[in-house]
Fold this sequence. Notes:
The complex is a heterodimer. By secondary structure, chain A is mostly beta strands. Chain A is about 0% helix and about 55% strand.
Amino acid sequence: DAGVIQSPRHEVTEMGQEVTLRCKPISGHNSLFWYRQTMMRGLELLIYFNNNVPIDDSGMPEDRFSAKMPNASFSTLKIQPSEPRDSAVYFCASSRGGSSYNEQFFGPGTRLTVL
Amino acid sequence: AQKVTQAQTEISVVEKEDVTLDCVYETRDTTYYLFWYKQPPSGELVFLIRRNSFDEQNEISGRYSWNFQKSTSSFNFTITASQVVDSAVYFCALSEGTGGYNKLIFGAGTRLAVHP
């Protein structure tokens, strides 16, 4: 079975540009998570979706960040406008359910560099 | 408040040595779950194990073993006869039963370097 798929794997953009990261969760998983990983802050949860509905977006840093999940097999994380401090690795993860015992499976990540 | 502490920032060993990665957690919940993930140099996070708070039995999977002790709030991970392929960053994580969903609280990670 395919794991979580993310695209692009690498993105280099200039400050002020719009960036869109994409994620396809594992088929049959109804929970989806977006994380950001930096050296300074480690792994941070940005947003959690359950059955395509955003449940917890308290980790979204600013209004420049937005996430959508139009259907069970696709989600996007958008940064507009991007800033150099947004440079990080962004992970998407999915799980079969949203109960506390459900393990999350992570995608390969998107390494974002904002110049 | 919930918290996961991995006090070892980096560990360096020579191949075939045994190595233990420490994980200490804090939670007020009586029901919770602990996880270990591996992040190899390629970057992806790989799920290794889940343990619930009611099961203190140690677990062994090949060269990997996990020791869960509620009395010390620890969930340590031991690699026996380490290999170069074990070089990675290892994360311990906590999910609380009252968290509403499987929100993971991650430790800062321990970078393990296994040298030939």
